[in-house]
């Protein structure tokens, strides 16, 4: 479903959050899935690497800068841009050399700091529009997985799945009443196979496709019915991924819109109960105190800052030595380190809170 499993993303996120070295270089950039658009990607990466080199030469000893840049070049040489997805992130420091393809499209930027920029890994981990579409019929169960309009059929883990019973033979034997039970058993096996695939990523929603009776049978025997967020009735036995994707995506988007409104309602209530913080100054302070339970931040909100005498200054050049490239990313890391949660919301959602807000523990 994704270019990198959530298991690997989670592991790498924990590793990167532990790193405190000077410098930690992060490069993020949007990429393209198909030719000829992906021919632009290595050109953009080269430009960003040139920017990194200039920053390294300004901020550290020339020999050390060149050694780290050589490490970055070696990492970039490993990337085959024919396999790009929505985004790319590179992480290089004296002890680290990693790159990731991402299912989100990040801004093209470079960060040279004392820690890595992890926002885009977090966005990938917490990206909520992963979904599965399952096509149900008495003769076959097909599973699709994807994000948005990028949907593809799953051809592993037992899928596509065919029944072990023959409906005609059962009817001919005079046991027509057994057909319904056999179909339910078939769908229950499909549900168990789906659960094994779902556990690998531990995220995503399930949309069912098929006639009303089969959808009803599946819901009745599903071990994890809470994963089902909607259904589409009709005959989709031979439908292609591009025919299924728009219908499934519409259901996922409506579900997410409703859930986001519920969570924002929790934020509103926290403000009424005086258990919330808004604006980067207050959110930064309360996060440092370990009080952040639930951080809301707009997806593309970034803020360079300099800290002097425990005061924050924002009118700074983000690429100047001694400046934090993105204080928002530091806040995200702090909240996670204290066991809080982070929710990214579309730009404009938190206008009245200056783009960032937090539900507090106390």
Q: What does this entry look like structurally?
A:
This protein has three domains: about 120 residues, eRF1 domain 1 (Translation, Eukaryotic Peptide Chain Release Factor Subunit 1, Chain A), CATH 3.30.960; about 130 residues, eRF1 domain 2 (Nucleotidyltransferase, domain 5), CATH 3.30.420.60; about 90 residues, Ribosomal protein L30/S12 (60s Ribosomal Protein L30, Chain: A), CATH 3.30.1330.30. The radius of gyration is 24 Å and the shape is globular. The strands form four sheets. The protein has a five-stranded mixed sheet, sandwiched between helices. A four-stranded antiparallel sheet has the order 3-2-1-4, sandwiched between helices. It has ten helices and 15 strands. Helix 2 packs antiparallel against helix 3, helix 6 packs across helix 7 and helix 9 packs parallel to helix 10. The protein is α+β, with helices and mostly antiparallel strands and about 350 residues long.
Q: What do the pLDDT scores average to?
A: 90
CATH class of the largest domain: Alpha Beta
Shape: globular
The N- and C-terminal alpha carbons lie at a distance of 39 Å
Quick overview:
With 362 residues, the protein is of the alpha+beta class. The chain contains ten helices and 15 strands. Helix 2 (41-59) packs antiparallel against helix 3 (62-77), helix 6 crosses helix 7 (212-221) and helix 9 runs parallel beside helix 10 (327-337).
């Amino acid at each position: 479903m994704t270019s990198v499993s959530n298991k690997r993303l989670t592991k790498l996120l924990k590793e990167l959050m532990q790193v405190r070295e000077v410098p930690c270089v992060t490069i993020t950039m949007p990429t393209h899935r198909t030719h000829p658009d992906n021919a632009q990607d290595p050109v953009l990466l080269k430009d960003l690497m040139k920017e990194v080199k200039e920053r390294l030469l300004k901020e550290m000893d020339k020999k050390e800068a060149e050694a780290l840049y050589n490490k970055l070049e070696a990492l970039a040489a490993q990337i085959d841009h024919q396999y790009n997805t929505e985004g790319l992130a590179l992480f290089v420091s004296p002890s680290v050399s990693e790159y990731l393809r991402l299912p989100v499209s990040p801004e093209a930027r470079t960060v040279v700091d004392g820690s890595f920029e992890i926002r885009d890994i977090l966005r990938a981990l917490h990206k909520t529009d992963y979904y599965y579409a399952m096509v149900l019929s008495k003769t076959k169960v097909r599973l699709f997985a994807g994000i948005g309009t990028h949907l593809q059929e799953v051809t592993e883990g037992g899928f596509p799945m065919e029944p072990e019973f023959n409906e005609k033979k059962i009817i001919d034997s005079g046991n027509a009443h057994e057909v319904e039970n056999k179909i339910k058993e078939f769908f229950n096996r499909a549900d168990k196979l789906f659960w094994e695939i779902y556990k690998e990523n531990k995220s995503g929603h399930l949309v069912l496709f098929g006639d009303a009776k089969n959808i009803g049978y599946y819901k009745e025997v599903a071990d994890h019915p809470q994963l089902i967020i909607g259904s589409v009735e009709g005959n989709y036995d031979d439908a292609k991924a591009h025919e299924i994707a728009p219908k499934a995506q519409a259901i996922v988007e409506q579900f997410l819109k409703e859930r986001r409104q519920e969570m924002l309602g929790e934020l509103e209530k926290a403000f009424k109960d005086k258990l919330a913080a808004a604006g980067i100054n207050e959110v930064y302070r309360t996060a440092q105190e370990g009080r952040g339970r639930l951080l809301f931040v707009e997806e593309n909100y970034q803020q360079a800052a300099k800290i002097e005498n425990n005061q924050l200054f924002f009118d700074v050049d983000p690429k100047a030595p001694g400046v934090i490239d993105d204080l928002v990313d530091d806040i995200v890391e702090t909240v996670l380190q204290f066991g809080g949660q982070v929710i990214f919301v579309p730009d404009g959602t938190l206008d009245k809170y200056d783009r960032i807000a937090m539900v507090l523990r106390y």
